[in-house]
Amino acid sequence: MRLADHPALHAAVTRGAPLLCIYIFEEGDGLRAHGGASRWWLHHSLDALSRQIEQIGGRLDLLRGQASTIVPALAAAAKAGAVFWNRRYGAAEIAVDAGIKSALARDGRHAESFNGALIHEPWEIRTKAGGAYGVYTPYWRAALALGDTAPILEAPRALARAPYPASGPARAALTDLDLLPRRPDWAAGLRLAWTPGETGARARLDAFMQDDLAAYASARDMLAVAGTSRLSPHLRFGEISPRQAAEAARHGVANAPAARDGAQKFLAELGWREFNHHVMFHHPDVATQNLRAAFDRLPWRDLPRAELDAWKQGRTGCPIVDAGMRELWRTGTMHNRVRMIAASFLVKHLLGDWRIGEAWFWDCLCDADPANNPMNWQWVAGTGTDASPFFRIFNPMLQGAKFDPNGDYVRRFVPELAGLPANVIHAPWTASAAVSERAGVRLGTSYPRPIVDHIWARDRALAIYAGIKG
Ligand SMILES: Cc1cc2nc3c(=O)[nH]c(=O)nc-3n(C[C@H](O)[C@H](O)[C@H](O)COP(=O)(O)OP(=O)(O)OC[C@H]3O[C@@H](n4cnc5c(N)ncnc54)[C@H](O)[C@@H]3O)c2cc1C
Predict the structure, then answer these.
(1) Of the listed 40, 140, 377, 379, which one is catalytic?
(2) Which residues line ligand 1 at a C-beta cut-off of 6 Å?
(3) pLDDT tier at 184 (50, 70, 90 boundaries)?
(4) Which letter, b or e, does each residue of 378-415 get, where b requires 16 or more Cβ atoms within 10 Å of its Cβ?
(5) Has 272 been annotated as catalytic?
(6) Which of 8, 91, 377, 442 satisfies CB 3.0 to 4.6 Å to 354 for a cystine?
(7) Is 470's pLDDT higher than 70?
(8) Is 418 part of a structural domain of the chain?
(9) CA–CA separation, 78 vs 22, rounded Å?
(10) Which domain holds residue 27?
């Protein structure tokens, strides 16, 4: 969803022939359907990309259906000499793209795919024994050792447009894709929070590099501070490449050596993104299967509807969890630290299967990513190859006090607790009657009592875990 550092577009333009630029909204073929927030993002990203392409003389044609039939049919109708695209790494996507490549080759057309989404292809980084990594640190060490020397590609200045063939597959208008919410329009908060598209991505990257990179290493975990890049949906939709982001961080250090720690940490986070794609490539069922088979025996609870709804809607009575879940619903994102706390609450305090939480995040996150979302859920649940151990159970009140010491993050998203002082805002049931009254907080009425007691829930989770350990 970008023009700069787009290897497939660059190769096509270099070839010199007129171009058909297409985007297929894929359905079927075993692909995972976009969630609601991703659909919203995709609509605006396609809109932005269409305009950019038109500004340089081209046109973005939209189609809807199965890429496996559309691409060969369109290539034939257009008598295309060559077809180019950037690779993707899910098993179903790889199968579709491989099928397209063979169909085009059968028809005698040049077909070529490129790496536009990652710094390193998942198969480029190998252990000494030639296998895949399961643990992040040695993976990232190997990736850094390999380095990245490919130049960042300029956006084309002009595109020569080929006419769309009359006998080609039917095109769709953006509105035909039906990506925006109908009623209720839940996207008001998303519109305020985000500017999808390459221009928005570039502006975000520049602002982060200028204002926040130097303090990133220390500010990234503080919830009330906008200390992270907020690039994840832009990266997810390819509006900016990870190599552009990495290059900007390296450039930031060259200009301001004090930003070295921040840049290293930022690169390491991009490294998690790389690692997660590496693991997904080697374990294609990462969104559905525990990476540690011992967890197949863990008896997740069949969550009562009321508990699951309380978690989804931010009414658990645990302020930091509720603030995070409401941030997610309102803005289409959630701070990484709170994602960990809220996910841990579902998996360990309520004993809900991580796949239920993963599916909810998939629907609500603008950055919902087929590798990052399940891999992070598996990290939290302890079921991943490189994961936080199951027995390490976050205390959400302590996490809140540590990462939101003044309570401002909770106040922003749980306004009914806004009047509480910092020393009780993460555990409102510990406030005295006088303090609660002054703050207008009546537990059980204006704000829920906790749906589960922390110590009791912790003991329950540990007992269940003891049952599968042996
Ligand atoms: C339960 C759970 C679910 C998650 N689901 C997703 C998801 O669907 N999509 C997604 O992109 N991230 C996901 N994350 C990771 C992380 O929360 C987000 O990438 C981060 O919050 C995005 O904010 P940012 O762009 O400001 O990050 P920054 O701190 O600025 O980091 C820069 C970039 O590094 C990458 N990154 C940072 N942290 C991680 C991480 N833990 N794993 C992988 N990549 C990372 C992202 O691309 C991010 O944009 C999830 C984390 C958890 C705990």
Answers:
(1) 377
(2) 220, 228-232, 235-236, 266, 269-270, 272-273, 276, 336, 339-340, 343, 361, 365, 367-369, 372-373, 376-377, 380
(3) confident
(4) bbbbbbbbbbbebeebbebbebbbebbbebebbbbbbe
(5) yes
(6) 377
(7) no
(8) yes
(9) 12
(10) 7-116
